[in-house]
């Protein structure tokens, strides 16, 4: 049974996110398009991946549990609403950007296709 935490696409998303954060926060390296959109692109695979693994630990279906298209879409809409509408109204450190919504959407699609797979089948994605 492949756990989410062993899925190569989940691991890759986490690794890229971590490297980007280290480059920005410790080395002050900011690459414009990457700085603006990479975290948003990786947010959904990372957050939904962690959430999926927790569900698989507690849900009766275990490794067969998958999020539905509707559940993934709700996650995408929730993140978009929170980070691109609500938080920019409450704090000046957040800015609203429609391209972030697109990045969350692409990340959600990548999660659904590459990470949200039945871990008990042999059709799990390979890098």
Automatic annotation (TrEMBL):
Keywords: Membrane, Transmembrane, Transmembrane helix. It comes from the Bacteria. The chain crosses the membrane at residues 9-35, 41-58, 70-87, 99-117. This is Magnesium citrate secondary transporter.
